[in-house]
Amino acid sequence: MNSFSLDRRDAAGVPTPRTVSRRAPVADDRAMLRAASELTRDLTAPRPAIYWSDLIASSVIGYAAFAAAVTLGASGWGIAAWVVSVLALYRAASFIHEVSHIKHAALPGFRLGWNVLIGIPLLAPSFTYEGVHNLHHAKTRYGTIDDPEYLPLANMKPWSLPLFLAVAALAPIGFLVRYAVLTPLSLIVPSLRPVVEARYSALCINPDFRRRPAEGAARRLWWQLEIATSIWSIALLGAVATGVVPLWAFGVYLATISAIMIVNQVRTLVAHLWENEGEEMSLTAQYLDSVNVPPPALLPFLWAPVGLRYHALHHLLPGLPYHALGEAHRRISAAIEPHSVYHKASYKGLPGLVARLARGTMTAR
């Protein structure tokens, strides 16, 4: 799951092309790839009971804590309840990543359930990620200008990192404008619709990415979810304007979405090393440019939930359900040689990864 980022364009508004780096290419480690595949063949089936119980529990805890935060106000207990709400709803929201990967026949109704519980209420319906995230996993797109979820952040200027986070903080305002204003306006002004679809309908970090129109069943689902989110947004703003929803509750709502997006943006900062500058990469190179933060680290359970702490492994085996990634990592780590490149994608925690990224920006040309 990603959000917004920096617009890398020149003064004339033309996208700035990425320069191709001169780093030596990394060949695929076929022994590692084969071992990873063979050791995890029995882990590919999603378990509905785990998916549903996790999503429902996270949602119930998140909304109950949100209600407590609104009721208790700016007290110590109110702030504590708000933090619990942010973390629980962030976990529930992170299932958008699973929705973009799972075979829906294996989890009937889960996409609809997620959108009703989380996607529509938090203004991030699944169509903004489905059909986008899969491009990030395309071998010939990863790390290139055509990857919607990649920027060479390690080679950008130091000010790019705080700006990267600041833009995420404004996400709820952007979401409300997108659905309460642009959706109905694009129906009235048909010439606006292609712009809305191409530029404002994807959760991505590459500002040069332009989304292609969906077709068939995907387009019907897009319209259903977009209209539902638009109705929710307009109704919410109307309720605030008429005093049905108090300004305090609305402020907590906006702050909650903003905090979720900031936490996710911090996670995004350390999901990859962000050192590629446009060239195509082997699968092994993509794996090494990605990050695992496995146990014994405990905090990643909060800031990289729903399997996101195994992000490098996910790039290696994108078909594995989130609940299988821990077992897959244990099997591969135990079976593969100590000198294998598999172990080189594992890191201790968030501080060291952020420091590495910051050092990269300090030496960027």
From TrEMBL:
Transmembrane found in the keyword field? yes
What's the protein called, per UniProt? Fatty acid desaturase
Q: Which GO terms describe its biological process?
A: lipid biosynthetic process
Report the source organism. Sphingomonas baiyangensis
Q: Where are the transmembrane segments?
A: 49-70, 76-93, 105-124, 159-181, 221-241
InterPro entries, sorted: FA_desaturase_dom (IPR005804), Fatty_acid_desaturase (IPR012171)
Entry-linked CDD domains? Membrane-FADS-like
Asked whether the keyword Transmembrane helix is assigned, the reply is: yes
Instruction: Return the Basic and acidic residues bias intervals.
Output: 1-11
- Record key words, sorted: Membrane, Transmembrane, Transmembrane helix
What region holds the Fatty acid desaturase domain?
Answer: 81-343
PANTHER family linked to this entry: DELTA(5) FATTY ACID DESATURASE C-RELATED, FATTY ACID DESATURASE 2
Residue span of region Disordered: 1-21
Please name the GO terms that the record assigns under molecular function. Answer: oxidoreductase activity, acting on paired donors, with oxidation of a pair of donors resulting in the reduction of molecular oxygen to two molecules of water
GO cellular component terms, semicolon-separated: membrane
One family name in Pfam for this protein:
FA_desaturase
